[in-house]
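ugh ok fine here u go
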Amino acid sequence: MSGRAQLMWDEAVTGYDFGPDHPMDPVRLALTRSLVGALGLDREVDVVAAKRAGESTLRLVHRQDYVEAVKAASADPASVDGAYGLGTVDDPAFAGMHDVSALIAGQSVGAAEAVWRGEALHAVNFAGGLHHAMPGGAAGFCIYNDAALAVARLLELGAERVAYVDVDVHHGDGVQAAFWDDPRVLTISLHEHPRTLFPQTGWPEETGADGPAEGSAVNVALPAGTGDAGWLRAFHAVVPELLAEFRPQVLVTQHGADTHFEDPLAHLAVSLDAQRAVQVACHELAHEHADGRWVALGGGGYAVVDVVPRSWSHLVGIAAGHEVAPETVIPESWRQEAFARTRQLAPTRMTDGRWPVSYKEWELGYDPADRLDQAVLATRRSVFPLRGLLP
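structure:
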């Protein structure tokens, strides 16, 4: 097995562009790739451009009629079929949509293949993590569900247990739906409570289909306003114990940066320092429970200068074995590039100055009157007994 990580990157992924007024601005991808280079991280990874996902690969998750609808909308955006979630405010049709969506999916599938085959121990596709797309429709800025496709490809290659951990502020509903009745896949999503945020799913009672898959879906619905200490407490109160029980052969993680307190579309209050801490934890958990096999994806994140490039550059550094120190000063050349591209002033350091981030471990006791602890306990009570664990 190669000791080097792979960074999946093709400049063409920046063509995933819903238009000038859409929150999913592809400049966030270009600026992340540029910051990775400015920090010298691209010298520590193998930068690989995978091929576009073909139709047989897309059909591992998506229905044929949906793929045909995306292709039709891609060829003629004006004739889009709204029945498939296309042509909406969230997912407007644009020329070339199929090709670039399939390209992003191809990077995640390629990452999964490289890790499974031992070509790389870790692989990162920060353009991926488009976790809302459903088998038969687009949703939430997502056309093809590259995260689900990566997991499905691992199963096709022979994996018997794949764990998917999603820390985006939004529920990883599309991945959960794709494997709702498949006990080979454990999906864990930590997200803002569905009462206050799209897609209004991800309740703790959603635990998988009745039968063998019951207990294979895990949802931690966090109260709006949850900050660093609560977010990390919830993660460590749920994820490590479940992974230890499940014993995944591969860990796939989604690192949406929209949990940050500056993100304009959600209501958590997490810092870059806490995001980095969870990235480090996922890396460690992959080594503890999956022989180091780790596929790390991006996701949401709409503070496209202040947050996203820094968060995902940390992710690349962690995967590469060259962590970027929290106090690192951002190269002035990158700050100038960010301003030239966006007319926004860029940050000067790599985190928000809250490192090290502390939290109270669950084992030290919980407060039944605390909303965060209530959320964690609801998840543990719903799913832990189904997996033979004490709530």
